[in-house]
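Quick note —
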Amino acid sequence: MGSAKITNLADYRIEHLQALEYAIRTSITVREDQEEPALPVHLEQAAHYGIHIEPGMTKGDLLNGVQTLLRATQTRHNAAGA
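Predicted structure written out below.
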């Protein structure tokens, strides 16, 4: 039973990180947008998942952080045999 709960939590986290990644990507309409400051709502959501937020963080930097955490979470989830 505990394993199912962990799996569901991992699935939940992955799903929300994917949604955040998509939201950040859609805010970057052209390559130059990567250098714009990240949106406060995206910064808040990323911080909720443990991503270290720095003043003046760009959309590109935030996207990299979210993608790194997402891939690590997926890898850990897959290695657990889910």
